[in-house]
Hints:
Elements (H helix, E strand, L loop, with lengths): L9 E3 L5 E3 L3 E2 L9 H10 L4 E3 L7 H11 L7 E6 L6 H15 L4 E6 L7 H16 L3 E7 L3 H11 L5 E5 L7 H10 L2 E5 L4 H6 L12 H10 L3 H11 L3 E2 L6 H8 L8 H8 L26
Parallel strand pairs: 3-4, 4-5, 5-6, 6-7, 7-8, 8-9, 9-10
Antiparallel strand pairs: 1-2
The chain binds adenosine-2'-5'-diphosphate.
Adenosine-2'-5'-diphosphate binds next to helix 10.
Amino acid sequence: MTTTTTAPTELTLNNGVKMPAIGLGTMDRKSPERIPDAVATAIAKGYRMIDTAASYRTERQVGEGIDRSGIPRAEMFIITKLWLTQYGYDHTLRAFDASLRKLRLDYLDLYLLHWPVPSDFPATLESWRALKTLLDEGRTRAIGVANFGANHLKTLIEHSGVTPAVNQIELHPFFNQRALRQTNARLGIVTQSWSPLGNSVRMFSAPEELKDPLASPTLADLARKHGKTPAQIVLRWQVQHGLSTIPKSINPERIAENINLFDFALTDDEMAAVDALDTGKRSGPDPGVVHAHTFAFKLED
Ligand code: A2P
């Protein structure tokens, strides 16, 4: 993949809708009560995109933070996701209404299927049909998927004739998803990184395997050279690859740090050095085999 030293602050989706390159992630199972402050702080610091999901159970807190910020709705880009126990056409439409209500919104910017369910792909397809209805009705400005592999994308597009605008996937220096990024790009799908700072490695690894991507000496060297932090090097590497990214933080200093990426550039060699940290090993669940029981929680309707 060719690299470039420029980094767009905004990406154009395949239906012409513009999406900020960087947004705030809000998955926080430990302290969801801090999300409204985090969202309001992020908006004050210049973020215009917030990512949540029904399964994070932070939609209410995101809605509160947006309200508190006083920002005009039209300036924001809000993403949420349909949980896989809500798949099926009618169930999806009801789940969408519930998400909007919790978010205190009357339309969404991007609605995603949270996972493919390979063991019951017809249900995944029915939900995708419902998302297309929501798009056609103008209730969401764009639709997409998360955690879809190349085979899932192929089946989805063949059956529906509708290409997702975005595929949000686990992506960080230890798992940089080069092949899937190329597939997404070939199909005109924007790749968006979840766990961009590699928190999934810290979350899911066995203690003996635990390695923190942010502690990599390569990133420390680059950080020193550019007068930035390892997190800023990682996020700059992503936006410079033309990706969208959604680092999660509830800490005001780190929220500000994570969007301060547009006053420096990595050289081609530096981009290649970060690329070379890839281990080829995902740390989150394998989308090829997920189903409701993969996850250790139940979603209330
Ligand atoms: P906190 O919310 O206390 O800032 P990811 O986006 O990869 O899932 O990573 C999120 C995790 O990384 C959270 O634990 C978050 O903690 C932490 N984090 C967010 N921004 C930074 C940063 N700039 N430097 C170090 N850790 C960060």
